[in-house]
From TrEMBL:
PANTHER family: SPLICING FACTOR 3B SUBUNIT 5
Organism, scientific name: Didymodactylos carnosus
Name assigned to this protein: Splicing factor 3B subunit 5
Gene Ontology biological process terms, A to Z: mRNA splicing, via spliceosome
Keywords: mRNA processing, mRNA splicing, Nucleus, Spliceosome
A GO CC term attached to the entry: U2 snRNP
Length: 86
């Protein structure tokens, strides 16, 4: 029983420390947005991936970098409307 509590507390600590790990109340939209942002950040952080995308799209690296940064604002579109509970 003590080990189960320990694992649960470690999971809660990770979820509070790193926003991308999610929690019980994470919506599908939030989770997908985090995944997309992590992917775009990886593309921006790896020089060779950025070069590959630039060559594949026949664009300059600066333009590709700008487009990826712009996509990070709302990668999955605007957030869905929340239903009001009465």
């Amino acid at each position: 029983m003590a080990e189960r509590y320990n694992i649960h507390s470690q999971l809660e600590h990770l979820q509070s420390k790193y926003i991308g790990t999610g929690h019980a109340d994470t919506t599908k939209w939030e989770w997908a947005s985090n995944i997309h942002r992590d992917t775009y950040a990886s593309y921006l952080g790896h020089f060779d991936l950025l070069n590959y995308i630039a060559i594949a799209e026949n664009e300059t690296k600066a333009k590709v970098r700008f487009n990826l940064l712009k996509k990070m604002i709302q990668p999955c579109g605007p957030p869905p409307q929340k239903l009001e509970e009465n």
